[in-house]
Amino acid sequence: MVRSGRDALGEDATLRRILRNTGWLTGSSGVNILLATAQGVLTARLLGIVTWGVLAVALGFVSVVGQLLSFRMNNFVVKWVTQLTEQEQGLAPTAFKLAIAGDVGTAILSFIIVEAAAGWGAVVFAKSPDLVWVFRIVAFNALLQAGRDSFTGMLQVNRDFRVQGIVQVACQAASTTGVAVVFVAGGGIAGVVFVIVGVQALSAVLYGVYGLRAARSVLGAGWIRSPVRHLGEIGRDMMHFAIMVNISATLRTTMNDGDLLILGLLTSPTQVAYYKLAKSICQISALPMMPMVNASFPEFSIAAARRDWGGFRRLMRRGERVAALWVIPVSLGLAAVSPFAIRLLYGSSFVPAATALAVLLVGLCIDGILFWTGAASLSIGEHGYVTRVNLTATLAKLALAFVLVPTGGYVMLASLQSLNVMGSNLFIARRVFARIRLNESSTTD
Terminus of the chain with fewer CB atoms < 10 Å: N or C? Predict the structure, then answer.
């Protein structure tokens, strides 16, 4: 496995470029995990396990509402700005403007919904009606997402992964520093909440500034003044893509951030805290995965636009070998040391999270090795199939969760999550290979 991973790196210039771009995001993610771990330890010791779980539910509530409405304009921008730039039709600025408009509209709507449903969410999911104000304040996180997905997508199109990494580290450093100040000052949940929202505002400003700079580089200095052009058939394709990606990603988000709400509804804030901590630690094993997805999506999109199916296959095959070099040994190490590390850092009351962590890492290994399924399927127009797979997996998991989680608790939910991730990835991978074979045969003919 190690040798094949090294051979893949030596043979594929595109893969080396992806990993070079990934390096900035992975490096920043590594620093972020260290900072976030320090922040998590301080927050857990400051708030205690129950209040920490309530805060996790509130943040999950805002995230789920926002993701339900979001059209994931980062994927939209990467696919359509890349494709339209390659085709030189002069429609790329229009695509980017539509993305920004969609981002802003859904962010405003998300904020309104969270504010209106804050009392209900605090009672039903957090079992803490006295903390409804937490839900109302973190609702501003949804509003501050306006435009961010579009700007992130443009940074990816422009290969500005270094800038994206620096922004991520700067925001996480500000967040950790803010929580440390609250901890030293003997503050409480109010201080932590205001730090979280303040850092979200900082993030919105930085992504806006650098995203606009990337747009100028990709689209030209006058893009913002260019008229919105009629898109014709391409416009319908764009709408279909945005809707399908929204549904698919919403279902996937429901199975991630939504897990905290399911646990809050069916069990207690304490079990939410166990599960939240386990998922947080999982990020160490998943460290290079999302950066690899972000860095590879433009390359998959270019290969698909050029109908270079051989290169497309090589990106998948060699990329998963490299991913396995990290995700398998790191996951085994985390499962082994987590009980001792959790007791040392968070306290003995959080140790039960180690069981859920071990279960989640099983699914994460498959998800990491098959990191390319999302980017590859979107690049070749299989977003409809991905949506159907995620819908089926989501409904199955929800049905089983309502039957099994009330008695099995957070460990049972972790098991369902691992099965969901493994099944979805394997079905999508099979479909991608079938579609590539079909495309190769049609190209030959």
Answer: C
pTM metric for this prediction? 0.77
Domain boundaries of the chain, sorted by first residue: 2-444
**CA separation for the pair 183, 180 (Å, rounded):** 5
Mean pLDDT by 10 residues, the chain (445 residues): 48 60 63 86 91 91 82 79 72 86 90 94 92 93 89 86 85 94 93 95 94 89 79 78 72 72 91 93 81 75 83 84 88 94 92 95 92 85 82 89 95 94 92 87 65
Based on the number of CB atoms within 10 Å of its own CB, is 129 exposed (0-12), middle (13-18) or buried (19 or more)?
Answer: exposed
CA distance 352 to 348: 8
Q: Which residue is associated with the tokens 């490096």?
A: 27
CA distances from 112 to 118, 121, 132, 140, 421 (A): 10, 14, 15, 10, 32
How many residues are present in the chain? 445
d(CA 26, CA 13): 19
Q: Which of 138, 409, 391 is nearest to 265 (CA)?
A: 409
What secondary structure, in 3-state letters, does 338-396 show? HHHHHHHHCCHHHCCHHHHHHHHHHHHHHHHHCCCHHHHHHHCCCHHHHHHHHHHHHHH
